[in-house]
Amino acid sequence: MRQRHGAAWRIKSTIKNQEGELSSSPLAIVDKIKNAIRLVHLDEHAEHLGIEPGTSLADARAAFPDIEILEKDEKADRLLFDAIADWCDRYTPLIALDKPAHELYGQYGLLLDITGCAHLFGGERELMKDVLARLFHQGIMATGAIAPTPGAAWALSRFQKPKEDCFDSESIKNLSQIEQSLTPLPLGALRLTIDTINAMARLGLRTIGQLRSQPRAPIARRFGREVLFRLDQAMGSIEEAISPRRPVAELMAECRLPEPIALETDIEKTTLRLANHLCEQMEKKGLGARKLVLCLFRVDGKTFHLEAGTSHPERDPTTIIRLFRERFAALQDEYDAGYGFETLRLCVLASEPIRQEDISFMQSDVQDGSYRLMDRLAARLGSHNINRGLLQNSHLPESAEYEIPSDEFEALSKALNTEPILQKYTLDNQSPIRPLRIFAFPETIEAIAEVPDGPPIRFRWRKILHQVTRSEGPERIVDQWWGKSVSRQTRDYFRIEDDKGNRYWLFREGLYERETDKPKWYLHGQFA
Amino acid sequence: MYGTTSISASNTVLKSMSQTSDLHRQELRQSLSSTISKIENRTPQLSEPIKASRASLGIHAIDKALDPVAAKGILTNALHEIRVTNGLDAASGAGFAFCLGLMMTKESADPDNVKQSELPPIFWISDHFTRQEYGSYYGPGLCAFGIAPQNLIRISPSSLEESLWAAGEITATHGAVRFCLMEIRGHPKALDLTVTRRLMLRAQSSGTTILILRQSSEEEASSAATRWHVMPASSRKSSSEASPLMHQFIGPPSFSVSLEKCRGGNPIFNPFIMEWNSNDQCFTLSKADTNHRIHPQSGFRGGGSNRVRRTVSKIA
């Protein structure tokens, strides 16, 4: 929608043409609420005409035949909102999403915990001005407030009186000021449900001040604990924690640039500087990074998050840079520097202590080299594309081995001793009992057997007829009777050699007469 | 003009060199090479020539064909190619590649003292399509070849460029890798002479073995040190003293192999049958193929196999 109507869609249609009439028709967004199509968002023109959100579409159409209707796109809203939240990362790493409480009246909100961050932007008020002005220039009309509690900030940002300077906002310094500024606000500011607010309105309770003058006990009895809980949260007598949308970094280094940079080499240099700084800090604490994220803030508001993991605690800046270089190479098309990046941030998301023996002279370079190799491969190709096999003690061929991403492998394999299982398959047997290659899904074949339970004499696989010359079997594999899974039919496995010398692992599913009349044949793997 | 004069000058020095002592000779050679490089306007090459390390395949005739001078076997720090013509033989090719890789790195790994799972890992690079078409490697099956499944690191890149990058990265790590097996289907254009040459050089300098397993392929020029053509072979007939039932049984993994290309050695075009003994981790020659049946062809023969020769005769 923003593509067609522009980012500032709400005010576009109020531009008047020469005759002093509004140039375009009013615009409204509709959504299905309780099986009725209702208007949920309106542009300023529609508001000007006196349409209210919550009106049904039919009513609105009857009154204003030229109203333009668009359906609500929840997913796109969400994406935009996430993008804004990403953008706000530049102010503080602690950002929580505030989803609308009600479909009709809800507006998206962001809660930023700016404790200890405000001085970087020249004070709280300046920070808020900066946020609102930048958002405004991106076509997003936002209101904001700063308060000691999330509840109070929520209330003030939505219900405060508009100021002359539209980017200026309310800023409360301490708890005692909260009461004073919240008193005149309506009850809607307390994050209560619509039903509760309506019920209170019937009793004549309309503002927070009126609610506070009432005795607490009857209120709790009548409207539930929710009301007082929300009130206490706003006033600060109950602590409220916000849950940040991204994991909080353990360590962080940031670089704000006077001129945006776009070249990869420049980004690399800046990242190296950040990495140097971080590694110094880690060395002081005796830590090594296991998971890192590089955030790139583009001038136009888009942010990129590049994550890189290491298989061992790492605090060598050049190694860290090499990992990110691979991540850049893997991004290819997704990565677009555009007009450049203005802020770079490198965070350590997870760290582990580096023990002294890890960096001793005894440590072999070979071991070290293989860890770094795995990290580089994982950074470029994605860790899910680098797997190792972990043997399981199971007689079912499908679950005899699991492929596990190699970065998780060490943790998992410690718990399991695979040596005895390994021994089971390396018997003093000249011919292997399990195939070298296996198909993830057994392939159907047409097979002809001499006797119903016997091995096939010829079979057709991938349109080619194979004449069986040797066979071993059957090896009967029955489903796990103790398991809860839907029991499968019994499988009789045969090892087959055809006239060309190829060796296959076939099975017949189902026993004649006991389980099925028409058993099916499958090819599961190939021997060398 | 400048060049010719300097060479004639060096010739006279070389003649006189025969009388001088060895130490003196070396100094002379160094000074000469530096003057030549000065004339040719390039920095003198100081890197030592790469030492060729070889591993025996356990069969004298093949070792001799691979290394006619000392019969020491196959080059280990090199790129080798194994090709399979038919899509049905995919597992045979893979099996032979593993056996060859294990033979070549046997020296580095002491099988009696070290547990399989503690050896340096083997890397297997193949894309998703190859896995779907020919099947993935199966841990229990690998055990029978003497490879612990956790020791095989399976890498699945999304493009050939990425696989080549991965192979390059793997070989750049000195000694952390036992060998690297790269599985490719057919003849992608990106894998040309230059690229294989680069891989070969990497393998030489780092001492890592790289094996390229080409599925469903024809022979193609590459910079690999050797090229093996692998087909499956039927189990050998059991000896007469065994019970007649033994005829039914399937023997150890066996391959019908021909050595199509062998740089610095003599190729063997007649297919011979090799069996893999998983207990001792070695190849054995099938009894029918006694040593004298393997005839290494000496000298160069254009292109090598029957197919190419036939096309040549057609044109003629």
Give the arrangement of secondary structure elements:
The complex is a heterodimer of chains A (528) and B (316).
Chain A (H helix, E strand, L loop, with lengths): L1 H4 L3 H4 L14 E7 L2 E7 L1 H5 L8 H7 L4 E4 L2 H15 L6 E4 L10 E4 L11 H14 L7 E2 L3 H10 L10 E2 L3 H8 L11 H9 L5 H6 L2 H8 L1 H11 L15 E11 L2 H22 L1 E12 L4 E12 L2 H15 L9 E13 L11 H17 L4 E6 L9 E5 H10 L3 H7 L11 E13 L6 E6 L2 E14 L13 E8 L4 E7 L10 E8 L1
Chain B lengths: L1 H16 L4 H18 L14 E2 L4 H7 L7 E2 L3 E5 L6 H15 L17 E4 L2 H7 L1 E2 L1 H6 L7 E4 L4 H13 L6 E7 L7 H14 L2 E7 L10 E7 L21 E9 L5 E10 L4 E4 L20 H10 L1
Parallel strand pairs in B: 3-8, 3-9, 4-6, 4-7, 7-8
Antiparallel strand pairs in B: 1-2, 9-10, 10-11, 11-12
Task: List its traits.
heterodimer, A: 528 residues, alpha+beta, MutS, DNA mismatch repair protein, domain I, Dna Ligase, domain 1, six-stranded antiparallel beta barrel, four-stranded antiparallel beta sheet, 17 helices, B: 316 residues, alpha/beta, Rossmann fold, 2 domains, two-stranded antiparallel ribbon, 9 helices, 34% helix, globular, disordered C terminus
Describe the structure.
Chain A is an alpha+beta fold and 528 residues long. Chain A folds into 5 domains: 2-72, 3-Layer(aba) Sandwich (MutS, DNA mismatch repair protein, domain I), CATH 3.40.1170; 90-235, no CATH class; 251-381, Dna Ligase, domain 1 (2-Layer Sandwich); 388-425, no CATH class; 437-527, no CATH class. Helix content of chain A is 33%, strand content 27%. In chain A, helix 11 packs across helix 12 (225-235) and helix 13 crosses helix 14. Chain A is extended. Residues 13-18 of chain A have low confidence and may be disordered. Chain B has 316 residues and is an alpha/beta fold. Chain B folds into 2 domains: 2-39; 54-236 and 249-299, P-loop containing nucleotide triphosphate hydrolases (Rossmann fold, 3-Layer(aba) Sandwich). Helices cover 34% and strands 20% of the residues of chain B. Chain B is built from 9 helices and 12 strands. In chain B, helix 8 (193-206) links the parallel strand 7 (179-185) and strand 8 (209-215). The interface between A and B is large, with 61 and 71 residues.
